[in-house]
Each structure stands twice: as C-alpha cells, then as structure tokens.
Amino acid sequence: MAQEPILTARGLVKRYGRVTALNNADFDLMPGEILAVIGDNGAGKSSLIKALSGAIRPDEGEIRMNGKPVSFSSPMDARQNGIETVYQTLALSPALSIADNMFLGREIRAGGFMGKVLRKLDHKAMERIAREKLSELGLMTIQNINQAVETLSGGQRQGVAVARAAAFGSKVIILDEPTAALGVKESRKVLELIQSVRARGIPIVLISHNMPHVFEVADRIHIHRLGRRLAVIKPKDYSMSDAVALMTGAKTLDQAA
Ligand SMILES: Nc1ncnc2c1ncn2[C@@H]1O[C@H](COP(=O)(O)OP(=O)(O)OP(=O)(O)O)[C@@H](O)[C@H]1O
C-alpha cells in the first residue's frame, strides 16, 4: 500500500495587497523523509512555510495533517499539533543555559507544594533530560548543559534549536536555512544532525538555497516557483544545475528530464 503523506496542502493562496505570494500552491510531506524546498528569491517559500507552521493564515486552500483538515491560528497552535519550526533567527534566549533553552515554555515543575504553589522548577530533571536529548542526537560535544547559549558557536546553537524541536514529540520539523550562517565544519554537523533526526523517524522540511546541502541530504526536492509547486524531483534523477534551471525558469521539466 502506498504511504499517505503526513502533511499536505492543496491550493494555498496568500496575497499581500497586489502581490500574490502563494498562487495555488500544493505541498506533500511523506513520513520519515527529508523534503527540501528550493526556489528563487520571492518564489514564496517562506510564505508556504509560514502557512504550514501557523505564522500566517492562507486566504484560500487547505492544509491536512494525517489526512485531517487543520487550521492553525498561531505558531503555538501548530506546535501543539506537532509542527516545530526552527527559523534562521533562532528563538533562543542567549543569556539562558542550554537546558533552560530546551525547556523554554515547557518547564518542568518540582513535585508537591514547592512546584505547585511556589512554582519551583525541577532543574535537575530538566538538565538530565536535556543531556539525554542532546546525546541521542549525537550532540554531546556540548559539555556543560548549564553553559549560556551565547557562549556557543553558531552550529552548536543551531544544534540546540533542532534538538529542542526534536525532543518533544514533534511530528514534523521545519528548518529554515539551517546552514546559511555557518562555516563548512559547522554546516557538516548540522547536516549530520538533520540525518539523525530523520533516523529517529521525524520527517523534516528543509528550506535551503544551498544546492550541495540539499542534494546531499534530501530524499525529495520540492521546487517552488512563482508562488506554487512546480515539481518534486529526486536528487538522483537530476543534476544540481538542472534543479537550479527549473527553479529559475531557465528550463522546463521536459528540457531537464
Ligand atoms: N508581509 C509581506 N508583505 C508584503 N509582501 C510580502 C510579505 N511577505 C512576503 N511578501 C512578498 O511575497 C512574495 C513571496 O515572498 P516569500 O518571502 O514567501 O518568498 P521566498 O521564496 O521565501 O523568498 P526568499 O528566498 O527571498 O526568502 C515576495 O514577492 C514578497 O515580497
């Protein structure tokens, strides 16, 4: 039996005044895959991702998760439904520790009176779980869980943000340009991390302009052009230059095949 997609969109339209950012856009994410989303500047990738993650409401169209129609009123709403989005501007608090960042907004309270009435946090439990989550994802080069996030490298910060997204039962993780600000070595780590998240069965949507990274990790590539999905290709069937030519309109699918 063919697998059903975990997240789909049909006919999404989003207009900003006279600009049509999404023009009848479709989307399908299969369970356990890394789906890259590529497209020229202004093609509507961010708008698509924002619609899927509750940051904007599309004017038209339908989004389904596991076959059921969903309508997210906010990013928090999407998150509660299992869609975690990691933006390039990471929503981490620099002065807080790695453990505190991982539990931001979902802190564990101490048991009994101290926790219930005095709202005391169970730091030990949060540290232990944070350490476990980071080590599961192969991120234990981060030694001290109490280290402030501002003292970490860009790649390590990205790691904490992705680990946080992967740690709490999320069903889909959307990564917006996760390697854009990183050097070669750090990018490599983040790509490995993405693969280890997939290995844990969580599908990933990877928005990226970096073709070598896309071709290295993606199972399928969604090509977005002029506000809609132009095609979905497999990296082994197309060259990078053909993917770019499709994305920019320099080639049609017939010419690239
Ligand atoms: N808040 C907004 N107000 C007005 N126009 C917008 C807004 N957000 C996006 N747009 C427009 O919608 C179109 C699609 O933008 P979007 O950011 O989705 O594209 P993108 O593919 O993510 O581009 P890039 O790769 O440059 O980030 C663009 O023409 C953009 O100017």
TrEMBL record:
Entry keyword Nucleotide-binding: yes
Keywords assigned: ATP-binding, Nucleotide-binding
Record-level Gene Ontology MF annotations: ATP binding; ATP hydrolysis activity
Domain called ABC transporter: residue spans: 7-251
Keyword Amino-acid biosynthesis on entry: no
Source organism superkingdom: Bacteria
CDD domains found in the cross-reference section: ABC_Carb_Monos_I (cd03216)
Protein known as: Sugar ABC transporter ATP-binding protein
Species whose genome carries this gene: Xaviernesmea rhizosphaerae
